[in-house]
């Protein structure tokens, strides 16, 4: 497995933030702050890949896109090989 980019759309509605992704079916996260949203999105991406049999390390990226927040899911075995 190669690293995968997961574009995440975060929208605000009143006092809540909601995140979805066109790249990762089933991603739907709600949080009361953007800090909590980042934590929840990272966990949701990890858990969705794990449910499909792939352990990943998730990191937020920056590509200057104003609509989507990019996240990267790195295969855990690649991360382990790079640091061990």
General description of the model:
By secondary structure, the chain is an alpha+beta fold. The protein has one domain: Double Stranded RNA Binding Domain (2-Layer Sandwich), CATH 3.30.160. Helices cover 31% and strands 37% of the residues. It has two helices and five strands. It has a five-stranded antiparallel sheet with strand order 3-2-1-5-4. The longest helix is centred in the middle third of the chain and has 18 residues. The mean pLDDT is 93. InterPro entries: TTHA1013/TTHA0281-like. This is DUF1902 domain-containing protein. It comes from Candidatus Rhodoblastus alkanivorans.
Describe the SSE topology.
Blueprint: E1 4-13, E2 16-20, E3 28-31, H1 34-51, E4 56-60, E5 69-75, H2 76-83
Antiparallel strand pairs: 1-2, 1-5, 2-3, 4-5
Note the total helix count. Answer: 2
Number of domains: 1
Query: What is the SS-derived class?
Result: alpha+beta
The name of the CATH architecture is 2-Layer Sandwich
Largest sheet: 5 strands, antiparallel
Distance between the termini: 19 Å
Percent of sequence in beta strands: 35-45%
Radius of gyration: 13 Å
In the predicted model, the low-confidence regions spanning at least 5 consecutive residues are: none
CATH class, named: Alpha Beta
> What is the helical fraction, as a range of percent?
25-40%
CATH topology category name? Double Stranded RNA Binding Domain
Number of strands: 5
H-E order = EEEHEEH
Overall pLDDT, averaged?
A: 93
Q: Sum up the overall morphology in one term.
A: elongated
User: Largest beta sheet: what is the strand line-up?
Assistant: 3-2-1-5-4
């Amino acid at each position: 497995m190669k690293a995968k980019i997961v574009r995440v759309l975060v929208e605000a509605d009143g006092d809540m933030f909601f995140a979805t992704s066109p790249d990762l079916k089933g991603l739907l996260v709600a949080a009361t702050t953007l800090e909590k949203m980042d934590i929840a999105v990272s966990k949701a991406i990890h858990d969705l890949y794990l449910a499909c049999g792939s352990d990943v390390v998730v990191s937020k990226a920056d590509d200057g896109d104003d609509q989507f927040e990019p996240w990267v899911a790195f295969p855990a075995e690649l991360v382990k090989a790079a640091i061990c």
